[in-house]
UniProtKB/TrEMBL annotation:
GO cellular component: cytosol
Protein species of origin: Ananas comosus
One Pfam family this sequence matches: Atx10homo_assoc
Gene Ontology BP terms: cell division
Occurrences of domain Ataxin-10 (ranges): 374-467
InterPro entries from the UniProt entry: ARM-like, ARM-type_fold, Ataxin-10/CTR86_families, Ataxin-10_domain
Keywords: Cell cycle, Cell division
Protein's recorded name: Ataxin-10
Length: 476
């Protein structure tokens, strides 16, 4: 079923196209790939000419891609025939410019071949790093970006992968590839998970987040350099996109990842920077992503910190978690201050207007939620910080923050699930802490604190008629 060695290239030849289609169909199963193993792969590789008709070149690449999908013999033939070099010549820029489909099929072929072992990954890397990868990363097509991420992730995994990962993240030529990939994906999107795995590996597992994040900055002066510190970054859409990806990975696969203290502290720096940048005088009506880079960075950094604060080492839960470093660096103080500076929830504000609330609540803070869900996200991080941490529980009491947290146990249209997170925060605040329980029990009934929503979710406030003191009773 192989081609004859003296077969001439036929431009648009229907006979060759039909023959390739037949072989392509046969190659879709493991049995078919096994039957086709032998001379077909080397012959096809010799015919990967950029000058071939695009349709014929595409079929050849797709056939080779299928042949190398898990078949050791064909992967070996690919390596012995310098398949990486042949594919690189076919998919990199040359007259005529390869189509997105050709590039996609070629990258899928490289990814399948790279799975054959360390020699295969080394061959692919040698042929394409850095110039080839950079050229492909600049193709603003999700169909090209997705398999490119597959190739990079595969080459930077397993034996030998660490050295290549250091080249990718630790050199100017390498980090430029990742910057272009993020630029492409932020502009045209992505369809497969390879981008998520690659960025999570680079930023979280291998601690290259700060380097990439600063390189994503767009200086106002084309001749200037990106900032070297997270605290001086001017946020753009690529920063927000990257944080959105990392937040998604952390929330969906928390048990499959390792979170370093370095990454956690970097996120705190970004939260502080975003908190200084965002205009809290303008009320937002959109949920994340809002389209405003600074606001989206603020929101995604909160979501990431929420998940980090709930994370435990999957293999050694007894080890210090990143939350300990975050608390030592002032995370909780920042959160409590940010919540205190917000105006109360809408239902509490209405109650204050009716009841002429207590002195500490009469002066309404000037800050409003810059996006829909900001208050909820603040409270969710606070709730996770409070979980079984006596020092944080006591800090809330010392800063007179208990009434503030009780205020969050309400329904708020602009903050879905605020009530649930507020109740969790209060539960964590009181769990095992007699002093906090006593202080809550001694509160005098106040309209802004006690609302019907609290009772609807399993809590009842009973007030002593003589001394007007309130106590919380669980009725669930």
């Amino acid at each position: 079923m192989a081609f004859e060695d003296d077969e001439h290239e036929r431009v648009g030849g229907e006979e060759e196209e039909a023959h390739l289609q037949s072989l392509l169909e046969a190659s879709r199963t493991p049995e078919g790939r096994s039957r086709l193993a032998g001379t077909l792969a080397p012959l096809l590789l010799r015919r990967l000419s950029p000058s071939s008709p695009p349709r014929i070149l595409l079929l050849r690449l797709r056939l080779l891609r299928n042949l190398c999908a898990g078949d050791v013999a064909n992967q070996g033939a690919f390596l012995e025939s310098d398949g990486a070099g042949a594919v690189a010549a076919a998919i990199l820029r040359s007259p005529p410019d390869p189509t997105a489909e050709i590039r996609r099929a070629g990258l899928q072929l490289l990814g399948n071949a790279a799975l054959g072992g360390e020699p295969h990954r080394g061959a692919v890397w040698t042929r394409l790093f850095p110039a080839g990868f950079l050229e492909l990363a600049r193709v603003r097509e999700p169909g090209v970006c997705d398999p490119l991420c597959m190739v990079l992730d595969t080459c930077c995994s397993s034996v030998g992968g660490r050295g290549r990962l250091e080249e990718l993240c630790g050199t100017a030529a390498g980090i430029a590839i990742i910057v272009e990939i993020v630029t492409t994906a932020s502009q045209v999107g992505y369809q497969e998970e390879w981008l998520e795995w690659l960025l999570f590996k680079i930023c979280v597992e291998e601690r290259n987040f700060s380097n990439l994040f600063t390189k994503l900055s767009l200086p106002d002066d084309p001749d200037s350099s990106p900032p070297h510190e997270l605290e001086s970054v001017k946020f753009n859409i690529k920063h927000a996109f990257l944080l959105g990806i990392l937040s998604k990975c952390l929330s969906e696969r928390p048990k499959e990842v390792i979170v370093s203290n370095e990454f956690a502290l970097d996120m705190l720096k970004i939260l502080k920077r975003a908190s200084e940048t965002v205009d809290f005088a303008s009320r937002g009506s959109a949920a994340l992503p809002t389209g405003s880079p600074a606001i989206d960075v603020l929101g995604y950094s909160l979501l990431i910190l929420r998940d980090i604060c709930a994370w435990e080492h999957p293999y050694s839960p007894s080890l210090d978690a990143p939350i300990d470093s975050l608390l030592n660096a002032g995370l909780f103080e920042l959160l409590l201050t940010s919540l205190r500076e917000l105006e109360p929830p809408a239902i509490v504000r209405k109650s204050m207007a009716r009841e002429q609330a207590i002195d500490q609540l009469t002066s309404s803070p000037s800050n409003v939620c810059p996006y829909k869900g900001y208050r909820r996200d603040l409270v969710s991080v606070i709730a996770n910080c409070l979980h079984r941490r006596r020092r944080v529980q006591d800090e809330v009491r010392r800063q007179n923050g208990i009434p503030l947290l009780l205020q969050q146990c309400v329904v708020d249209e602009d903050n879905p699930l605020l009530r649930e997170w507020g109740l969790l925060a209060v539960r964590n605040l009181l769990e095992g802490n007699v002093e906090n329980q006593k202080e809550v029990a001694e509160f005098e009934m106040q309209g802004p604190v006690v609302t019907p929503e609290i009772a609807q979710l399993g809590l009842r406030v009973e007030v002593d008629k003589e001394n007007r003191r309130a106590k919380l009773v669980n009725i669930s």
